[in-house]
Every structure is written in structure tokens, then in C-alpha cells.
Known about the structure:
The chain is of the alpha/beta class.
Amino acid sequence: MYESTHRCNRENGVGRLCSDEIVHQPVLCPAILNNLHYGPDAIVVDATVGQAGHALALAGRLGKDGLLIGLDIDLPSLEVARRRLQQVDCQIKLLPENFARLDEVLAELGVGQVDVILADLGVNSAQLADPQRGFSFQLGGPLDMRMDDRLKVTAADLVNKLAEKELADLIYRWGEERFSRRIARAIVVRRREKPLTTTAELAQVVLKALHITGPGRKSRIHPATRTFQALRIAVNDELASLERLLKITPNLLKKGGLVAVISFHSLEDRMVKYDFRQNKQADCYEIVTRKPIVADQDERRQNPRSRSAKLRIAIKK
Ligand SMILES: C[S@@+](CC[C@H](N)C(=O)[O-])C[C@H]1O[C@@H](n2cnc3c(N)ncnc32)[C@H](O)[C@@H]1O
């Protein structure tokens, strides 16, 4: 999954090691390039530029009058993107912005409608691999999960402060976890002794709540996956941001412009699917991907993260 590069000893502005030890391998890149057609002078928005994996490929097709606008809420990733995009000919604007504000960002840049909007949702490999970010239960680290350091509430705050019912509802709704009540109960019992502060502690509580103690789990998926997913979605308000992006996108695209969204779990994919369908009914979009495009066997083997990726594309009419 990872292409490792040189070690980086510099610190970013917020005191973390910078994230270019791990380079994110973009998913479904050939499908993106085969389906997103635009000219050399186009304006292309990568709403989740990350480490510029897709952006490099997209910018490679733009000439010197073309413009690539990249947004990300993760400052270390933007720094990596900035360095990697130095090699392209087109104009580049990289901004530490949430894509939920894309309409305001474009207005501030004086940009009208654009030719392409790509959103590759979720976290990137460098964020996942940095224990200090608290996204992974396999690496010990603080229970943080904020993609954007400017956010105030961490996963530890939610786990230690929400009422049991709120916690259960959150884990059920955003983790689609059928044992949410049992997990919420176990968290509340455990935090009475001592607040939960690390990813490892939370993963242990989930395993215990599900009566899974040793090796020999049947599923390929770690039992804490859904609980972690739910907390990450809540901390970053991910679905509200996606909902807003989907809502503003039709007005931001030129006629014939393309929107492409790569999602990694069913909640996101459902939102994209319904949004495209509604816009089709309103005669605003033509859907390019009747079924979502998924990774082929080679890509799945090389990049396990691609296994859950679903790409949907629509054209503005
Ligand atoms: C899957 S990665 C994208 C990787 C990128 N396509 C590449 O090839 O390097 C998702 C990125 O989106 C960013 N992100 C997530 N939610 C965001 C939001 N609401 N606004 C802007 N960026 C967001 C994350 O910080 C992460 O860097």
C-alpha cells in the first residue's frame, strides 16, 4: 500500500513530523484519467488533493493556461502536494480549505464555473500511518482522529463525554455497527475507572465488549473498524461536508463539466448515488457510471485500500 520515501525530520507548523515518509498511492487512477476529459486550458478542482497522487496525473494534462485548484484540510499533506506539484506546467492553487466551502473558495479566487471536480474521500495513507493522528487501532496513539488540526473536538472527547445513548446512536449510525449498544455500555463502564486516551485502549474495550479476546477472529475486518469509522466521521463531520459539496457542485460546474467522487464506505456511496440520481431526474446531470467503477484484481492486490473504493462520475447537462 505504501511507497516509502526518504525519512523527514522536519516538523510542520503544528509540531508533528511531516507526513511524506509515506506516499499515498492514489486509487482508480486509470479510471479517473480515462473518464475525465478536458482540454489543456481547463480549470480542474481536486477537492481532496492529499499528497497530489491524482492531482499530479490530472495536472499533467493541463497546459500553462490550465489551472489546478487543490483543497485539503490536512496541512502536512498540502505541504507534500505543494512539493510534488512543482514539476507541472499549469497554474496551481493549493488551499487549506474544507471542500464544504468550495463555492466560497472559488468566489474568493474569482473563479466562476469549473470543468472538473474530483473528491477522493476519507483519509490518506500518511494520515493513517502516523500513530499521533489516532486513526488506526493497529498503531498505538492518542485518540485524536482530527483531519483538520483547527477542529476542537477529538475522538477522546466524544468517547469520554457523550452520554451512553448518544454514543450508541453515533456508533450505530455512522459505523453501521449492530453491537453499538454493547460497545457504548462497555465504554461507559471503562471510562468510570479512567478516561480512555489511546486507540489501543478503545480497541481493547471493543474487543472485550464483543467477547473477542485472543486470536482466531473469523472476519478479515478488525472488530473495532466500525467503531473507529463512526468516531472519525463524527469528529470530522464528514457526511455533512460531503452533503454540502454534493449540493453546491451542480452550480459550480460548466455545462459538460464532470464530477467524480471516490468513496470508501456504503454511507458515502449511497449519498453520492442518490445525489446523482436526483440531479439526473432534475435534468441537471447525465450519469456516466451506471454502476460504480471498482478496482481490478491487480490494483486490489497492490493497494489493499482500493478494495473498498467506488468511483461514480456524472456530467453536468
Ligand atoms: C483519500 S485522501 C486523497 C488522496 C489524494 N487523492 C491523493 O492521490 O494523494 C483524502 C484526503 O482528503 C482530505 N479531506 C477529507 N475530508 C476533507 C474535506 N472535507 N475537505 C478537504 N479535504 C478533506 C484528507 O485530509 C485527505 O488528505
